[in-house]
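quick q for whoever's on today - can somebody do inverse folding on this one?? i tried earlier but teh output was garbage lol. tokens:
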């Protein structure tokens, strides 16, 4: 499939690339003045429900959002890749294999360099270097998948494609998940890369993380909205705790398999199977996975039936399970979810993503949003001394090239 991307950076594409005006290029000496620039966008994601299930063979229900990362790419005549972020100082230079010129690679830059290396490894040969400038509206380290957005965005840009089929998108999601597992050392599942690559406006994706079968579910929240709440608690130790949870799930599965060797994943187990897990901590981890998987299916049914009250209650149940059984919430996310559930107009709330800090989501009636936000801000500050940030993010398409408008084209 990749062979058809081999026109990467070839001159054939130049005809449809937008040209930059001289004033545009002078604004940013990072780009040179003559070569055209293409702009791409990759969204972040929220997971509506189904947390820590994507490495347990369960269902997840994520959606791409309107916050995300823009990447502007300009091809070079040599074999250097230069990357820079508007959110971070400095610049990183690498070869076409993704090897950095100096040993000091800032943490954020490891994702695009890893993407470059893996795209190359998958058989797409880059013929020339590029200047790539990133700019993000995703709050960093907030659990809205800024790393998956950065990886998938970079891979998309480097393939040189202007559109991708769903199969291409799926393939990139898997490739970037592998990169993150193997190069970055986070044993994440497929959910984040999948949502970033395959998101669809107005929809969430019901994904079976075992078979990778998926379906798009329209998310019609009527006169309510999903509010994203950033705890502003940095996700310290998140990666090591994440890997620890994953290992615990593996151990719980091994114990259950002594009686049920047919199971391949923990999400396949039934609640009674937990009896064979004598270790109380491992039993709690298994209980979260089994009950959460059921909640995903029930949530999708509730959403399809337009029963937002039921949907909201399942969100709140999910948070409780993540707090008591999976133990990945922490005081800040608990304070946030508790404050949200008590505030006016809220049908339910839960943390979203890996946990250990980051964001929570709440389903809130539109007419109560101002009151809701005021109340949650006050309660959260009292409980934690931290400030919460709110985003009202709509569900959006996955990674894409941003075509220049006709107007700006004429201006060139
Ligand atoms: C992180 C991982 C995902 C998923 C979630 C928890 O976001 O990258 O693969 O496991 O945590 O649901």
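ok took a stab at it. sequence:
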């Amino acid at each position: 499939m990749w062979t058809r991307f081999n026109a990467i950076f070839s001159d054939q594409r130049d005809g449809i690339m937008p040209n930059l005006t001289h004033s545009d290029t002078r604004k940013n000496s990072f780009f040179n003045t003559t070569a055209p620039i293409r702009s791409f966008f990759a969204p972040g994601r929220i997971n509506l429900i189904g947390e820590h299930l994507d490495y347990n063979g369960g269902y997840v229900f994520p959606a791409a959002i309107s916050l995300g990362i823009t990447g502007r790419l300009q091809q070079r005549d040599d074999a250097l890749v230069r990357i820079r972020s508007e959110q971070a100082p400095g610049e990183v230079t690498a070869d076409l294999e993704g090897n950095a010129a100096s040993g000091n690679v800032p943490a954020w830059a490891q994702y695009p360099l890893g993407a470059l290396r893996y795209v190359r490894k998958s058989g797409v040969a880059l013929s020339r270097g590029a200047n790539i400038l990133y700019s993000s509206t995703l709050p960093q380290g907030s659990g809205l998948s800024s790393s998956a957005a950065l990886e998938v965005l970079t891979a998309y840009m480097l393939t040189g494609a202007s559109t991708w089929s769903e199969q291409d998108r799926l393939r990139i999601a898997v490739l970037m998940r592998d990169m993150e597992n193997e190069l970055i050392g986070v044993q994440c599942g497929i959910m984040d890369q999948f949502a970033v690559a395959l998101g669809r406006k107005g929809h969430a994706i019901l994904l079976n993380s075992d078979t990778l079968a998926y379906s798009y579910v329209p998310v019609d929240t009527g006169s309510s909205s999903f509010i994203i709440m950033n705890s502003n608690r940095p996700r310290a130790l998140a990666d090591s705790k994440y890997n620890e949870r994953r290992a615990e799930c593996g151990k719980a599965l091994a114990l259950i398999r002594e009686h049920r060797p047919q199971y391949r994943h923990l999400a396949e187990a039934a609640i009674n199977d937990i009896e064979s897990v004598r270790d109380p901590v491992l039993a709690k981890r298994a209980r979260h996975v089994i009950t959460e998987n059921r909640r995903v299916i029930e949530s999708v049914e509730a959403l399809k039936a337009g029963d937002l009250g039921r949907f909201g209650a399942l969100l709140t149940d999910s948070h409780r399970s993540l707090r008591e059984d999976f133990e990945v919430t922490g005081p800040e996310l608990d304070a946030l979810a508790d404050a949200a559930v008590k505030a006016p107009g809220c049908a339910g709330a839960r943390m979203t993503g890996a946990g250990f800090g980051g964001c929570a989501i709440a389903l809130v009636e539109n007419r109560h949003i101002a009151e809701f936000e005021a109340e949650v801000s006050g309660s959260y500050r009292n409980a934690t001394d931290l400030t919460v940030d709110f985003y009202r993010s709509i569900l959006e398409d996955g990674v894409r090239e941003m075509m220049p408008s006709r107007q700006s084209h004429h201006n060139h």
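fwiw The CA atoms of residues 45 and 144 lie 5 Å apart. also Residues 1-27, 407-412 have pLDDT under 50 and may be disordered. so keep that in mind when u check it
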